[in-house]
Design brief:
This protein is α/β, with parallel strands linked by helices and 660 residues long. Helix content is 42%, strand content 17%. The protein is elongated, with a radius of gyration of 51 Å.
Length: 660
């Protein structure tokens, strides 16, 4: 086994796994020994085969390889063959490529200019190079790189002293047909001693070196003739040759380009007028400011962290104070409205008592001429009752048909489909569990009507309580308008905040919950457009009845147009079809998780069984996971618990990312 130095002349063919390496020299005793008659020593073409060759191999690759002789049967009988095969590429061995230049050593300035500004060469250098002068001197080695202009320049940002030696060794010559020139190579173990150095440093690096040397040895504050004089004194001490040459060049540069202080001042004024210079100065200042800021922050990190924590705490407290202020203002406004409403209701009650006493006293028997109050003037007409009788009724045969119609009506007035289905199921639950449904907000009337018509059709009563003389008796009397006692009937009490209804309704609802009187409605809808302390107090007494916010569900519904085009469903269903055992699921998959989260925030023992029924009713494959839990919290739990408790529960369910 031996080591050869060679070059890949041809690209590897796509369907071949091998390439041939042209043998240029053998590597022995750290030297390149050129092979004479390569075809004789490396038959048949003076090449060795490299198989398998790396996929990224390319023509022009130069390197060292260990090769060994192959068995004759592997190549005998082939017109073109290789007696030797590459076993390994030796990447740790290095070489220099020698590049001839058209200058003698005496033309050192031209050589430096060539190295700094670049020279043309058709080949690609993959090693450090030596420059060969026309008087047989080698300059280097140095590494070069190719510029955008395809010129080769010295690849170094440091001071670069290139060794100079006489060419005292044989060069390996190779006629490179791919680039059309002769190329020369030599081992990195150069036999000739160094005779001198070529300084390739630029003028600005020369100046920096000279001034640094001056600063290290003598104190100066300005660049002037004094500097030049001191540099001359340093040179007179006869430092090493390179140092001498650099300082002499620095003296020459200073002497040539010396300017006065006045010139510098005028030059600065001129420069500072240009936006480019101003931006550069600003960038420098910003950079230094950022660095100094980072240093100070690093030194006082603990204090800064404490300050940041206090700042955040202050912001949090300010937000809390703002929320508390809004809450207090809202409560004060509600309290004023409640006081005003209470005064009005007390006055109405006093008037009612007075009129009742007048009606009962026998003034006529006493011969007194006292005007008698006619109760029929207001009490017999203490409310406005509306019942639609001309609409075509759809008769439902099962609960699914009823829920579909409710959802269709709600989608017609602008409700999103999932919310429409959850609302429809909630209405079924209100009928099954004998719970009134409160609808709040600007569009509470429209939403309640769409639900009532879908459930009971022409047996849906809309009652507008009189602002002065509402009573439970007159309300019950209105139920005589129902025509089908065997079917589900619906009642909509509108805008109760404007009447005494919110004071009297609780007793009626208590009666309704336990009554088996078939003349009473199965579904009661209560709409509230404007909330107040009294309406809040009224809702709190309803014991976890559904409270639906119309403003969060629909926007600007044109219910009149839908009525005119007969697009809203008016339906009817026998009351006997609404039976818990046939409608509720046997088990809930989501309820236990709901209870676990709620009990982390509040006590929930008394309501568990009632809420479990709601889950058995509401759960549906069309809703995503935990959607029912979020709906139950918003509609059945939130109106009856502390605001912060409800907020924490909803955060646990990640309600903002659940689509309902």
């Amino acid at each position: 086994m031996k080591t050869i130095f060679g070059i890949v002349e041809k690209e590897r063919k796509p369907n071949k796994k091998y390439v041939f390496v042209k043998v240029l020299a053998e590597y022995r005793d750290h030297q390149l020994i050129e092979v004479q008659e390569a075809r004789l020593h490396y038959p048949s073409e003076g090449e060795v085969i490299w198989s398998p060759a790396p996929e990224d191999i390319h023509a022009g690759k130069v390197g060292f390889y260990t090769v060994e002789e192959r068995n004759e049967e592997e190549y005998t009988g082939r017109p073109v063959y290789s007696k030797f095969i590459v076993r390994k590429e030796l990447e740790n061995l290095k070489y220099y490529e020698v590049f001839p230049i058209p200058f003698s050593l005496a033309q050192n300035h031209d050589i430096v200019y060539l190295i700094q500004n670049g020279f043309d060469a058709p080949q690609r250098f993959s090693s450090e190079i030596l420059l060969l002068t026309n008087d047989d001197y080698l300059v280097g080695p140095c590494r070069v790189k190719q510029t955008k202009e395809q010129k080769w320049v010295i690849d170094s940002s440091e001071d670069k002293l290139l060794e100079i030696r006489k060419k005292g060794m044989h060069l390996v010559k190779y006629n490179d047909k791919n680039v059309g020139i002769e190329r020369y190579f030599v081992s990195t173990m150069l036999a000739s001693p160094v005779e001198d150095y070529l300084d390739c440093a630029t003028n600005d690096r020369i100046m920096r070196y000279a001034l640094k040397t001056l600063k290290d040895q003598q104190q100066v504050q300005e660049i002037s003739r004094k500097v030049i004089s001191q540099l001359s004194e340093l040179v007179s001490d006869l430092p090493p040759q390179v140092r001498y040459e650099r300082i002499m060049r620095a003296i020459e540069l200073l002497d040539k380009y010396q300017i006065t202080k006045e010139d510098i001042g005028q030059f600065e004024e001129e420069l500072l007028q240009y936006p480019v210079i101003q931006r550069k100065i600003e960038e420098k200042l910003e950079g230094r400011f950022a660095a100094e800021k980072a240093r100070i922050e690093d030194e006082h990190r603990k204090v800064l962290n404490e300050t940041e924590q206090l700042r955040r705490k202050k912001e949090h407290l300010l937000v809390e104070m703002e929320e508390i202020g809004r809450w207090i203002k809202e409560r004060e406004e509600r309290l004023k409205k409640a006081d005003k409403a209470l005064e009005l209701k007390i006055k109405e009650m006093k008037d009612n008592i007075f009129h009742t006493l007048v009606d009962l006293l026998p003034f006529t028997n006493l011969g007194l001429n006292v005007p008698v109050h006619n109760a029929s003037d207001d009490r017999n007409h203490s409310e406005w009752v509306v019942k639609d009788v001309d609409e075509t009724t759809v008769y439902y045969e099962d609960i699914n048909h009823l829920m579909t119609s409710i959802a269709e009506n709600l989608c017609m007035i602008g409700m999103q489909e999932n919310k429409a289905w959850l609302t429809a199921k909630t209405i079924i639950g209100a009928i099954l569990f004998r719970k009134p449904v409160v609808v709040k907000g600007e569009f509470s009337f429209e939403l309640s009507q769409a639900i009532g018509w879908a459930v009971a059709g022409n047996d849906h009563l809309t009652v507008f309580p009189d602002i002065r003389n509402f009573t439970n008796k007159t309300l019950i009397n209105s139920f005589s308008c129902y025509t089908r006692p065997d079917c589900v009937k619906s009642l909509h009490l509108c805008q109760i905040e404007n009447s005494p209804a919110e004071l009297y309704l609780q007793s009626f609802l208590d009666h309704w919950r336990v009554s088996i009187d078939e003349s009473l409605p199965e579904l009661i809808l209560i709409s509230i457009k404007e909330e107040s302390e009294l309406t809040d107090s009224f809702i709190q007494k309803l014991s976890f009845s559904p409270v639906i916010s119309a403003n969060e569900m629909i926007t600007t519904p044109d219910i009149r147009l839908l009525r005119k085009t007969h697009r809203l469903v008016f339906g009817s269903i026998p009351a006997r079809l609404l039976v818990e055992g046939k409608i509720l699921k046997e088990k809930s998959s989501e309820f236990n998780n709901f209870v676990e989260i709620v009990q982390e925030v509040m006590s929930f023992t008394k309501q568990k069984e009632a809420f479990k029924k709601w889950f058995r009713l509401l759960e549906d494959e069309r809703f995503e996971e935990e959607a029912v839990s979020v709906w139950v919290v918003k509609v059945l739990l939130q109106p009856y618990v502390d605001r912060e408790q409800a907020k924490k529960i909803l955060e646990e369910f990640d309600s903002e990312n659940i689509l309902i």
